[in-house]
Amino acid sequence: RDRTGRVVCPLGVGEYFEYWGFDPQRITELDWGEQAALGGGFTVYCRPARHFSGRTFRANRTLWASFVVETPSQRIFLGGDGGYDTHFADVAREFPNLDVAVLEDGQYSEDWRYIHMLPADLKRAVEDLGARRVFPVHNSKYALARHPWDEPLNNAAALAAENPEAGIVLPRIGEPVRLDRSDTLPGRWWTAPEN
């Protein structure tokens, strides 16, 4: 908490940060279409995502969102947790020339297609956004869906092979990545080494 200068989150989520001990003066809640200038050339834009929030009696009391973060040198899209919809193309029109897109890729099911992207949806989102580099996330760390843990990684690797211009990067879990570099990282780290 003490190392965090400012928290930018969707509407209603700030109360959780307050509960966790964050200073309310350092929490900025945004609605879709709003932005927060953080100084030093950094601006965060809140945009739609396709999901929901909460469960049971606390459902939909907070907003779900995606974000565009503009820095002095980069334009980064954080897709959040959600399904495919027109918001990806809308973001690309409003923020052309994205440098990086972080997109959900995993824990999907046909039953959840409106709140988690299926492999074909990842491909469409990548095409819609046209970012120079794409980091598929929301995979490999836990099992929520019925697909094998490595299926999202294999699908993203196949998409990268099919469309090298998509700039798909699949770093090892926990591996530091420099966003200002365009080189790629090791290939299929999740497969067993060949003997």
UniProtKB/TrEMBL annotation:
Domain Metallo-beta-lactamase residues, every copy: 5-138
Cited InterPro entries: Metallo-B-lactamas (IPR001279), RibonucZ/Hydroxyglut_hydro (IPR036866)
A single cellular component GO annotation: cytoplasm
UniProt cross-references to Pfam families, sorted A to Z: Lactamase_B_2 (PF12706)
Ranges annotated as spanning the membrane: none
The name this protein goes by in its record: Outer membrane protein romA
Organism: human gut metagenome
